[in-house]
Design a protein that fits this description.
The chain is of the alpha+beta class. The chain contains eleven helices and 13 strands. Helix 1 crosses helix 3, helix 2 crosses helix 3 and helix 5 packs across helix 6. The longest helix has 17 residues.
Length: 410
């Protein structure tokens, strides 16, 4: 019997009357659908204030944390209207000069006052949509590998299979067809590391913009897998979203794979992998390819001469500092923590002061962006694979900062 909104007062009076008649508190609370704490509070209010104690009390707080004196708030609003471009930091400085002997509010309090009066301009959220990169021709074996997940399908044991495939663009050689249980990057790391050990390293890898090859919300849409490829000296190529034809050779292989190795699906992952292995052997060694003058891919493909030897060391001789990005994706410079990107966690980056308290961040030979120690927010460059560090102007020289990076005056 929970409270009825239309007669809350009547319900409370009935509750108190029955309690005064001697009915147990626990049974009354259970019948009215309230906790015993609420029941005792209602009864105590009745004993203290009588029937008036059963009415709803005001929920207005006794004090407001950000409430300013009337004169101070009016002064802040007048100065803001006179100088619309001024923010809370400058307004606080004017307060310090104008008023003495009173506690000056914090910047956050002043900002809250401006926001309450509609004087804060809200910026729209910047969404960095995925974009394709320049695509190479890949005319020789190992100049370009193509990778993707063939569409998932259900096995007989009611588990989904996600085949990860890799082909050599020039020779059409199917390097990998691995039956995986998900698209998690940890599984992809294992597959690619084994492939690199067996076949060496390619010059570049082309993929779409999905996980684990890219990350929609990370810096430049990079993923941990893509950062690992960069560390190995592998160039990254991405097709434009919704343009699978830019990876057409690989998609054509998927069509053949679907027809010959997935219908009907097998009972489990082991059986499905055995079918993929058989398909790879036939596709590479027995099936002639018209684009190869009826040769088999194995007759054209040769392993890469770039041997996989793990991650090479990184040094930044043209930078002021080398800093390892924390696990939470931050750059720690003294006591300052700059939000960077989690995909670079554990990676060494170089930073160089190009202006007073304005720093350039680079990863390997790629310049990623700038940050200042006041805002501690990275302003990314438009081109993630921009000019090398050696070609940058010296500190303080004209043109050493991007056009959209404003130097803040104190």
């Amino acid at each position: 019997m929970p409270w009825k909104e239309c007669s809350v007062m009547d319900e409370r009076m009935q509750f108190v009357a029955r309690r005064l008649a001697g009915e147990p508190m626990a049974e009354l609370c259970r019948e009215f659908g309230i906790s015993r704490k609420t029941g005792y509070k209602i009864f105590d209010r009745y004993q203290e204030c009588g029937v008036e104690g059963l009415t709803d009390r005001s929920r207005r707080p006794y004090r407001y944390a950000n409430k300013l004196p009337f004169q101070v708030e009016n002064y802040v609003l007048n100065v803001k209207r006179e100088h619309p471009s001024w923010g809370a930091r400058k307004l606080r400085e004017r307060l310090i000069r104008r008023f003495s002997g009173i506690a000056i509010p914090a910047k956050s309090t002043i900002h809250a006052v401006l926001d309450r009066h509609g004087l804060v301009e809200r910026r729209g959220r910047v969404r960095r949509r995925a974009q394709g990169t320049a695509l190479s021709l890949g005319q020789q074996p190992n100049e370009l590998w193509c990778t993707d997940y063939k569409g998932e399908f259900l096995l007989a044991n009611h588990k989904y299979c996600y085949p990860l495939t890799v082909t050599d663009h020039a020779s059409r050689y199917l390097l990998v067809c691995e039956a995986l249980s998900s698209t998690k990057e940890n599984y992809a790391f294992t597959v690619f590391e084994r492939l690199f050990k067996e076949r060496g390293l390619p010059a570049g890898i082309r993929s779409d913009n999905g996980v684990p090859f890219a990350s929609a919300h990370a810096l430049f849409n990079l993923s941990k897998l893509a950062v690992w490829w960069l560390r190995l000296g592998i160039a990254i190529e991405r097709i434009k979203p919704a343009h699978p034809q830019q990876n057409g050779r690989h998609e054509r292989m998927h069509l053949t794979l679907k027809k010959e190795a997935t219908k009907p699906a097998t009972a489990n992952f082991l059986q499905q992998q055995a079918r993929f292995d058989k398909f790879m052997d036939i596709y590479n060694n027995e099936r002639p390819h018209e684009a190869l003058d009826m040769k088999c891919p194995a007759e054209v493909y040769q392993p890469s001469t770039r041997i996989y030897q793990g991650l090479p060391d990184i040094d930044y001789p043209f930078h002021d500092k080398t800093i390892v990005v924390t696990h939470c994706g931050r750059i720690c410079l003294g006591k300052k923590k700059i939000n960077f990107s989690q995909v670079f966690a554990g990676q060494a980056v170089g930073i160089k002061e190009v202006h007073d308290d304005i720093w350039l961040v680079s990863f390997m030979e790629y310049d990623l962006g700038y940050f200042d120690l006041e805002t501690r927010v990275l302003e990314p460059l438009e081109n993630p694979f921009g000019p090398k560090v050696q070609n940058l102007p010296e500190r303080g020289a004209p043109g050493s900062l991007p056009k959209n990076f404003a130097i803040r005056s104190s």
